[in-house]
Amino acid sequence: MRTHKITLVPGDGIGPEVAAATTSILEAAGQKTGVEFLWDRYDAGAEAFERTGELIPKAFYTSLEATRVALKGPTATPIGAGFSSINVALRKKYDLYANFRPVKTLPGLKSNYKDIDLIIFRENTEDLYAGLELMINPDIAQSLKIITRKGSTRIAESAFAYARKHGRKKIHSIHKANIMKMSDGLFLECCRKVAKDYPEIQYIEHIVDNTCMQLVLNPWQYDVILTTNLYGDILSDLCSAFVGGLGLVPGANLGKEHAIFEAVHGSAPDIAGQDKANPTALLQSAVLMLHHIDEPDTANLIHAALVKVYAEGKTLTGDVGGTAGTKAFTEAIIAAL
């Protein structure tokens, strides 16, 4: 029996429900593949802050620095005021420079876009999300866009290395260098330099506003999307609509030493505790985590069960046209393992 200790943050709203569903599926799959999971659980987020005054417990940092891997549910972030995003804080603290988001169609879902299969590599630590803001005076606020050669080069290297390893043939670099000639220009310079080391991969550049139109018209032209932080955040949400929304799409934040795998959807407090939440996004994020910790058999077993349940269409949650609750969906996945 192989044992993995994983730092777990269930999160806010529906987070505890989807986390419970996901961990139970992983444990059931692990029994079949000889893997045991030890969950080091910590409450973090808006609800924890209200109870304890601590947004992220210090013990969480100690745990993550020991396990180096975390599975994280959705956490709420106030809009326009209040505390900063937990996600942004963790990415900066642990230098989780690569945001990796696969967008792939699950069978059985109604959609205007069939057979979507693309990957987004988003730089995760700089750009406008560096958090360098100030009020110049009561009427003028300023945010600084930070693009570095180091940050741009390493996200480009991550995207090209992944494409080569997994047989992806094409990378689009998304930018706005026609206007932001220095910052986005530096990003493109770095991408072009890395691209020269991968001659077998077609390298293309698209301006971000045109990319939004192109994605809606013909998303199949894209294979791997490589971009900066803000554009990647926006484009990954847009792309999720092709496959059923954020409730289905996984996300990974990867650095050299640590990795956090998370559901990228919101905490949905309006349906929390009602057995309505869809755990698919967090479950697919956990599948990415299993590959990361070198447990491909368990990952493939869970993914096959997920595909089977969606293909059958009998036990799906309401957000994807079904009538099942969270618990029934979870039981269907476990039965399909």
- CATH architecture field of the largest domain: 3-Layer(aba) Sandwich
Low-confidence stretches: 79-83
Overall mean confidence score, pLDDT: 93
CATH homolog superfamily of the largest domain: Isopropylmalate Dehydrogenase
CATH topology of the largest domain: Isopropylmalate Dehydrogenase
Strand content: 15-25%
Q: Sum up the overall morphology in one term.
A: globular
InterPro entries: IsoCit/isopropylmalate_DH_CS (IPR019818), IsoPropMal-DH-like_dom (IPR024084)
Keywords: Oxidoreductase
Family: Belongs to the isocitrate and isopropylmalate dehydrogenases family.
Pfam family, one: Iso_dh
Summarize the helices and strands and which ones pair or pack.
Blueprint lengths: L1 E8 L5 H19 L1 E7 L4 H7 L5 H10 L1 E4 L13 H8 L4 E7 L12 E7 L9 E5 L2 E4 L5 H17 L4 E6 L7 H13 L6 E6 H10 L6 E4 L1 H12 L9 E5 L4 E5 L16 H13 L3 H17 L13 H11 L1
Parallel strand pairs: 1-2, 1-3, 3-12, 5-10, 8-9, 8-10
Antiparallel strand pairs: 4-5, 4-11, 6-7, 11-12
Helix pairs in contact: 1-9, 1-10, 1-11, 5-6, 9-10, 10-11
Record keyword descriptors for this entry.
alpha/beta, 11 helices
